[in-house]
From TrEMBL:
GO terms for molecular function: acyl-CoA dehydrogenase activity. It comes from Novosphingobium aerophilum. This is Long-chain-fatty-acyl-CoA reductase. It holds the Pfam family LuxC. The keyword rRNA processing does not apply. Keywords: NADP. InterPro entries: Ald_DH/histidinol_DH, CoA_reduct_LuxC.
Amino acid sequence: MTAPDPHPPVQAPFFVRGELIHGEAAVHRSRDLGMVFATPAIPFDRIVTPRGEVPPLLNVPTTEIIDFLVETGQRLAAPGNPFVEECFARMAATHVLPRGVIEAVARHAVAYLDRGVLEAELRASFPDPAALDGWIETTDPSGRRAEVRAFAPRLLHILPGNSPGVAIKSIAQGALVKACNLFKMSSADPFYTVAILRTMAAIDPGHPLVRSMSAVYWSGGDTLVESVLCRPQYFDRIVAWGGGETIAGLARYAGPGLQLVSFDPKTSISMVGHEALATDALLAETAERAAADLMMLNQEACAASRFQFVEGPENQVDRFCEHFQRAIARRAVASEDVRPLPRDLREQIEALRLLDEDYRVWGRPDGTGLVIRSTEPVDFHPSHKIANVVRVDRLEAALAHVNVATQTVGVAPAERMAALRDGLAAAGAQRVCPLGEAGPSTNGTPWDGMYPLHRFVLWVVNERGCAPDRSAPPV
């Protein structure tokens, strides 16, 4: 007789257009911790909205959609939400971040479901948001008339596993453009999206918004699934978050009728001018701001800074490094996520410390934060609360290390942003902000170089021809 498994798989149900689906048809392992979780079989015939079916949200006013999203946010933030509590308990087994960090990130993300934030997003994305609710008449200089509409798309969302906040934003954005949405969850978090959708169904299980949403899981890159779903007869856009391998794998499905809108893998940097180190008080404040940017999502976020280009003589930059490491350590301990560095990373850093006089290291490889000072960026990807401070004589020297994969650039003092931003944009950077303010971003501004909602919709035109010439005499 076989003994029962002392660690049975964590259950990860699906949500399909208002219905919760349980099952153990497939067993998977989470990306970071290797924990086992079980999912139902994917109901292919139910997660795709047929082309002959009018999108459920098409004729629902955006004001009503916003009302529903705002109420969802209130319920997600309310203490004791059973779907959220159950979700966090399960995520603790599969996610690399501690439960306390996950809960804090989710609480902050709910702020996106605010009426003012959602309305600002619409105003910024559309010259006339009324195009979402109906056909907008326009006349060109020659007198030709047309009506234009931002038509509801069919979106396949590939969600990341590093932040539960992306699930909230993706659901809200899919609702604002009245899309039929299928969310592919991550193995690090196959739970939170379903918890949000269950919260919505508790408000009104038959609401068109609920009927426009499905969330399932499959292993990323599984061609047996993706070759079936990634077709223009089923979806208009693949909206993908993820690493280079994920984006490249999905790009092969893009073509006529099916576009890839990708939030590519990004890194972020800080640029610190000598003015921000001029006094002890300024230096300490700058170090705290730099630590805030580095420690976003425990350095898991795209906007989390990994390289700090600091302008000044070596002794002054070294003083900054000392304060910087202490500031990182304080945040690391407060995060409750203190894990020793992986062996290969420890060995790389130890080699730098011992063999190269151009490098200096502050801190220990115990997970409380390390600062490596160098004259050129290190040749590995700083992570696990590691900062690489690159000393430069002039901040402009950092432009040589900026490219299209550079997302956010935090600058101190803020007065130097104006002189740097054109060069940063030309090099490929997409966002410039004051040091310490890498997150959250200003509501209604572009993200990753675009206005996502404008990219999601289908822009459809109904030509009406020339207006009759009323001035001509009757025949």
